[in-house]
Amino acid sequence: MEPTKKSPKILVFSTDKISDPGIDQAGLRKLHYSPSVYVISMPCSSGIKPRWIMHAFEQGFDGVFIAADGHECSYSATCPDRTNTIINEAQRLMEEKKISPKRIRMAALCSVCAEPFVGHMNNFSKILADIGPDAG
Amino acid sequence: MGNQEKKKRIGVYICHCGGNISDYVDVEQLRDMMDKEENVAISKNVMFACADSNQKEMVKDIRENNLDGIVVASCSPKLHLHTFRNVAQRAGLNPYNYVQVNVREQCSWAHSDHPDQASVKAAGLIRAGIQRVSYSEALEPVKIKAIKSVVIVGAGVAGMRSAIELARMGNEVFLMEKESRAGGHVAGWNSLYPTGTSGEELTRKMLEQIRRIPSIKLFTSSHVTNVTGSLGNFTVEVNVGSHGEEVLKLPAGAILVTTGFSPNIPDEGQFSYGLSESVITLPEFKKRIETASGKLNIGGKEIHSIAFIYCVGMRQSGGPNKYCSRTCCTSTMHASLELHKKFDDMKSIHLYRDIRTYGKQEVLYDQASKQGDLFLMYKEKEPPVVTVEGKKVKIEVTDHLTSKRKLEVKPDLLVLVTGMEARDDSKQMAQLLKIPVGNDRFFNEIHPKLRPVETVINGVMLGGSCQGPKNITESIQSSMSAAAKINALLCKDSLEMEPIVARITEEACTWCGKCAEVCDYDAIFQMETNGKVVAGVNGATCTGCGICTPVCPVDAIEVAQYTNLEIESMIDGFMAPVKLEEKLAEAGTESSAGEGLMKEYPGIWKEILKQIEAEPLTIPQIAQQLQQESQQITYHVMTMNKYHILEAAGMDDDHAYFLYTPKL
Ligand SMILES: Cc1cc2nc3c(=O)[nH]c(=O)nc-3n(C[C@H](O)[C@H](O)[C@H](O)COP(=O)(O)OP(=O)(O)OC[C@H]3O[C@@H](n4cnc5c(N)ncnc54)[C@H](O)[C@@H]3O)c2cc1C
Ligand code: SF4
Ligand code: SF4
Ligand code: SF4
Question: Residue B509 pLDDT > 50, yes or no?
């Protein structure tokens, strides 16, 4: 993806033990992705509050990406379901504000998932660019 | 809730990482920019933030400037979070008033293709760090006194071996075994790969040793029924005796789980299993060759040819057991070798998918090939088809090694090479201990590479094959490292635990119980305060996962360091507009890094320059004159060399070291 000044701004929630090390790997191997991607690392993706997601949109982020641990989560076997519930709740709040539900995405990433992370970022950047700035 | 008053005197350090960051990110301009941020008292560039000399300077800065929060923008926190937390602590600042910003892995390296935009991003990241630290709270570690005793659940080789070790290290050990005898699966094997040692003898010797150590109490026929408490102070309730005659409450500082595996049993009819006495599993086969003498008779007939079908119930791309069981290939080779050693006129045919006799075990594969065993390769999509008629077995198989020829094999006996599965009752154990199980139903460690024996529950460790298929060596390796980990915890007088845990805003909480419902660790309890019923959090059992926080309808529960203020202000920091001077667009080339970027050298560089201005010196000589370690000086001299601040000017008299002189 060729980033431009207007490339969509993406907020990523990663997890300290699993997906964040995967994102670090991408950097370590100089696999490039859009510089408009910002990461906040959390203990577990099931601890993300929908109000933070809404805050990100209010502040001008174009998309929110949750880099979850999926079934690798060391805290809870039901983590994928819980994270899904959070996303559904966020999408409900987004609908109220007429923000496209496509602006939030989730994927499970592991601690060596460098390429998959870059792939997700490129793909999501493209999707967000297609939606355009005014959908939300 | 904690005190989230805004910090007023923040120190910001932006690291060059010897060029790893500054080659792409304009650290100088960012330093000036951050200097102007609200509540920032000092903003500095450093060549290597983690270098000893810089750490000392930071301690000095914190003390002299009375800093109340620090931000280091450098590498990933996975590398140096604790380094700088310790710096803060040494300077008398609470370590949790420190925030590390990752401008290397997640910025300069990731965006080395767009240095101008990397600088813009770094500005956002650092501002977010400043915001976060400004709301950070001073946290005190949760301190607990540890009981020096360990409950080990499962007396197989893994549990027995670690019991001996933990007792030797001075701990009291309670070793629990469900069955009426200790030893686990190994006690049932007579000959073990790779050495041929007898499993029965190995476990008997261990047991004798255990009996001689008074600080180990072995309870056979015992069942764990309840576990309460947390690291340093668990209580494990156990029923002992085949009818649960005795109920014990055992105190434990830590718990080691070594409950082992279950041999996988094929479904009835799978490769005709259960339909004929001539189809048996590998463990059954091992027993038969161990007990037979002279001739091998199975199912009322003499056996001279044996076919093995590998990977039965394992490596199922569509089924639940996706993993490879690791031990079965080697165990089969070993069984076939034993077979030929013990009985005359034997023929082994191996129908395999892949042979995984990894490491030194490969020798057994080689020996089996040399003794004349036949190997035919099948694919998962085209498994052998077995039909039985009384004692007669017929196998049709497509051999993928010889141009996919269809072959028919009629052995006297078919052995199904089954592997290791998680125990059926491991779910109950997981529930009792609140430890997670993976998709493969084995217990999950925190991280397979970095923290392979710890679980998310502080003080509960894993050892042996309850984590996944392992041979004896591997089982003992993991249980011994768990033992060492446990001892490292319990040998201290008091334990300090990460204070990043949940807490309640009592004014807002209505005790709806939703948070308690989702907490997998029973860390939330009901309590009364000022005549009001609210939720309370047990800081010793809370893992800080935060799962309880999004479910609260009134936003009354949050995890320290992940509060609304901290997270939302970080988001604001990312998005604050960044104006960089155009010249930045040129950053990112090797040459631009040296020129002008480091007009202001770090103190240690100035001292090195002063030394070599007088006369050319070698690194050991500089180190001696400055009373620093050579290693540290090497580090700086190499970087100064990279930035053309000094250069090598010949060798010393012994031709051992370069002499350096100033260049600029
Ligand atoms: C067919 C086969 C052949 C093998 N041959 C070899 C070989 O030749 N060489 C080799 O190195 N490895 C071999 N292995 C692997 C070897 O068996 C394992 O590495 C070893 O048994 C692992 O030891 P463990 O202590 O982890 O588990 P286990 O041997 O399973 O012992 C676990 C113990 O915990 C007890 N337990 C379980 N749950 C509870 C509970 N809730 N409360 C109390 N107690 C409990 C069990 O009763 C058992 O005694 C073989 C494996 C198989 C399947
Ligand atoms: S060790 Fe061999 S037989 Fe066992 S599952 Fe792995 S490949 Fe199959
Ligand atoms: S979910 Fe919120 S209101 Fe309900 S008990 Fe927990 S903290 Fe209190
Ligand atoms: S953060 Fe919440 S859900 Fe997680 S362990 Fe602590 S109290 Fe339980």
Answer: yes
At A35, give phi and psi (nearest 5°).
Answer: -70, 0
Q: How do the domains of chain B map onto residue ranges?
A: 1-139+561-584, 149-262+422-494, 270-418, 500-560, 601-662
Collect all residues of chain A within an 8 Å Cβ-Cβ radius of residue B438.
71-72
Average pLDDT over residues B607-618: 90
| Architecture of the domain made up of B149-262+422-494 | 3-Layer(bba) Sandwich (3.50)
Model confidence at B582, in pLDDT bands (50, 70, 90)? low
Report the CATH number of the A10-131 domain: 3.40.50
Smallest Cα–Cα separation from B487: which of B142, B237, B210, B256? B256
Average of per-residue pLDDT across B135-162:
94
Q: What is the pLDDT of residue B2?
A: 60
CA-proximal residue: ligand 2, atom 8 (nearest)? B311
What single string gives the DSSP state of each residue in B107-124? IITTTTT-HHHHHHHHHH
Q: Of B151, B164, B185, B475, which is best to mutate to test ligand 1, by the most ligand atoms within 8 angstroms of its C-beta?
A: B185
Distance of CA B549 to the CA centre of its chain: 26
Output the pLDDT for position A136.
42
* Phi/psi at A121 (5° precision): -65, -45
**Beta partners for B528?**
B533
B270-418, which class in CATH?
alpha beta
Distance set, CA B223 to CA B190, B202, B217, B432 (Å): 28, 25, 15, 12
| Contact: A75, B543; criterion CB under 8 Å | yes
Q: Is B535 in the pocket of ligand 4 (CB under 6 A)?
A: no
pLDDT of residue B597: 43
Put the strands of the sheet holding A104-108 in their side by side order.
A37-42, A10-15, A63-68, A104-108
- Alpha helix positions (H), B578-646: 590-594, 603-614, 619-626, 630-642
Give the mean pLDDT of chain A.
91
CATH architecture assigned to B1-139+561-584: 3-Layer(aba) Sandwich (3.40)
Give the mean pLDDT of chain B.
92
Is residue B497 scored above 50 in pLDDT? Answer: yes
Looking at residue B580, what is its pLDDT?
83
Question: B601-662 architecture in CATH?
Answer: Orthogonal Bundle (1.10)
Give the pLDDT of residue B122: 97
Distance B509 CA to ligand 3 centre (A): 5
From chain B, the residues in CB contact with A40 under 8 A are: 567, 570-571
Name all residues whose Cβ lies below 6 A of ligand 1.
Answer: B 153-159, 176-179, 184-186, 189, 192-193, 224, 258-261, 263, 282-283, 327, 331, 334, 420, 423, 425, 429, 464-465, 470-473, 475
Which of B193, B311, B440, B465 to probe ligand 2 with, by most ligand atoms within 8 A of CB?
B311
Taking CA atoms only, the protein residue closest to ligand 3 atom 1 is: B552
Calpha distance B558→B135 (Å, rounded)? 14
**CA–CA separation, B150 and B490 (whole Å):** 9
The verdict on B115 touching A (C-beta cutoff 8 Å) is: no
List the single residue in B with minimal CA-CA distance to A11: B571
The tens digit of pLDDT for each residue in A95-124 reads 999 999 999 999 999 888 899 999 999 999
The nearest alpha carbon in chain A to B550 belongs to A49
Beta bridge pairs of residue B174: B151, B217
